[in-house]
Amino acid sequence: MDILLHVARTGGSVALNVAPILAVLLFFQLVVLRRRLANPRRILTGFAYVLVGLTLFLVGLEKALFPIGRLMAAQLTGADVVGMAADAASVPWWAFGWVYAFGAAVGFAAAVAEPTLIAVSLKAEEVSGGAIRARSLRMMAAAGVGAGVAFGTLRIVTGLPLGYVLPILCVVVAFQALTAPRLMVALAFDTGAVGTSTVTIPVVAALGLGLAAAVPGRDPVVDGFGLIAFAVLFTIMAMLAYAWGAAHLAYRRKPPVTGTGR
Length: 262
Prior knowledge:
2 domains, mainly alpha, 262 residues
């Protein structure tokens, strides 16, 4: 009974959050454009699906993903895994190797299953006429997310300030954007955004908050957030590196142009 009440309350909150979107669409369609809805029944059915899907998704986050993230972080930082007293403030950063491995693996797996990344990858392959492979794009983006999450967990363990790390990464991204093929620059930035969306963000956020709560000397409010930023930046870096490498390889494989002479 409690779960049904919780689902009902969550559904009401979702409806209130979605209502402004519906109001804006109806206003522009009926008042600005002064046209009737083409398929009102299908539109209403679609919004009903959105309400039900978001409601169940949010309930699932609260009941499963966030607790699992906290539990895994607590277990991976335990004394039996780290190999020493978990309450010792001088635990070396390399003792948390399984934390970094788990962060990389869960980031990669979540990005591979990301619906928005799948959609953008397929659209990129379609628009480019097959020059950009959807599967390759997804794998590189997922690898970037995994690397970003692993680096973010390292930052939480070591306590590195975000203000020191993020500017350096932004400079690297800017340099890559200036030297990478123009075909991939805009797509790389969009991929960095869609690669960390519906599936990835809850899982990564739960891991970051749980890890910051489990590591001695870390504050979940100060240190628990920031994994998403690293996942986005590393995804962009991975995509631009992939573009540069593919362009360089294609140039190396291009047959030399010989002169015709007289």
